[in-house]
Amino acid sequence: MLYENIEARLITPNQGVEISGVDLNHLRDDQAADIKQALIDRKIIVFRDQQISPERYASFMALFGDPVVEDLELVDGNPPCVGVIHIHPNEQQKINFWHMDHSFRATPSPKLSLYAKILPDCGGDTLFASLESAYDGLSARTKDTIDGLWAIHKHTPTQNSKRRYTKEQFDKLAASEVRHPVVGYNPDNGRRFLFVNMPQYCRYIDGMAAAESEALLSKLYRHVQRPEFSLRLVWRPNTLVVWENSHCLHYPVADYFPSERKLLRVSIQGEAIKALPSAA
Ligand SMILES: [Fe+2]
Fold first, then answer.
1. Measured in angstroms, how far is the CA atom of residue 38 from the centroid of ligand 1?
2. pTM of the model
């Protein structure tokens, strides 16, 4: 048994766990403690068949930090921290690439959640890759190469950001750059993680020649995509997932046109990415 107070089934050896034997409407403190630990251990936790209100969804997510007011479309009457990702019938989902949300911010959201409400009959799966597993899978030579490096991240417009920002907010985001360590350190479990994102967000290595930086970042981005570091979540209505956004990339599969897909989302207050003290 992995945890004392919840049932947990590993999804792959390296990351992900499906948790059962809990009702998120009536969570005991001992179960909540196991769920928090499971997220640290496994990066992606999945619950099936949970019937909870948007209010209960928000209060459940407070287990992992402070939910923030959503910058996505809000649904009538929902708490302001519960947003929606809604692809309407006959609308093409355009976000279908490996990425992390918000790495262009100084404090990316460490944890995100999605809760499925309307799904296509099949398709619309989401893949998640663990950046801790990806770091562990690097060669010793590459680990040495990237130790102590910092990368510059910057915003690029996406299908969702076009909906959520005003032109002024957009221009401000487009003008600001942030700097994050390439090798992050997770004090919750003592593991390192490979903090890279898609090239439209993760622009270049600070202080490195452009061609060398591009070659290194694209090699690392490709490395994260190896199937050994990821899982594929097949959604069902009322499936709820929580993942460590700053320790994962995700890939929403856009294979279900012209069907509808609607998920609720909660994001947790952002945190700076930590580096080991040696990487100043
Ligand atoms: Fe995303």
1. 22
2. 0.93
